[in-house]
């Protein structure tokens, strides 16, 4: 049997003999160096991406408020009938409705419709803290009123008779501001000492764009850092 450059040769019987002990297989050594270089490159890119995401987290604030205009209605009225703002307050959302001149809100026996997203589930006690004393709202089994359909529909009640306020605010419990995508309200067209007519109006246009939650970006960045650490320990150390 003959050896050449540390590698075994085939003998006359066709058998391959292992190289001499103590001789390094340069092919395996080179392959290992290439693998380590590739892992280092991937690790470096993952760390850079993680730092970019964490920097974005520091610069992008969480959405805390959205606004809508009340336009579409079943009375044939044109123009903007009012505005709706939704503001995050802790784990709740504060909704403020402001009607345009000549319009008001039906507080006794009226309806409030909400369109939601993101898996928000509302109950009969989800609406509270109304700006009008002794006003409450109960969840209805049917979420449609006329030609308008909502995720949830509430009927309002007032203990001390009917009122027609031009502004109304209330709180949606355990909700995120980006989960509220639209609202409908029972309105009054003001005339004389009361309402000349009543109807239903909803917010128009596209729902506000959702802003990524800070926790989502932070979790993704931390995950990339963790993956980079595992790769470094497993293949480079």
Question: How are the SSEs ordered, and which strands pair?
Answer:
Blueprint: E1 3-4, E2 7-8, H1 26-59, E3 65-73, E4 82-89, E5 92-99, E6 103-105, E7 111-116, E8 127-128, E9 135-139, E10 144-145, E11 148-149, E12 152-158, E13 167-172, E14 180-191, E15 194-203, H2 214-235
Antiparallel strand pairs: 1-2, 3-4, 3-15, 4-5, 5-13, 6-14, 7-12, 7-14, 8-13, 9-12, 10-11, 14-15
Helix pairs in contact: 1-2
Structural overview:
This protein has a domain at 65-203: Sandwich (Immunoglobulin-like). It is 24% helix and 35% strand. It has helices at residues 26-59, 214-235, and strands at residues 3-4, 7-8, 65-73, 82-89, 92-99, 103-105, 111-116, 127-128, 135-139, 144-145, 148-149, 152-158, 167-172, 180-191, 194-203. Strands 3, 4, 5, 6, 7, 8, 9, 12, 13, 14 and 15 form an eleven-stranded antiparallel beta sheet that branches. A two-stranded antiparallel ribbon has the order 1-2. It has a two-stranded antiparallel ribbon with strand order 10-11. Strand 10 and strand 11 form a beta hairpin. The chain is elongated and about 80 Å long. The model is unreliable at 57-61 and 206-213 (pLDDT under 50).
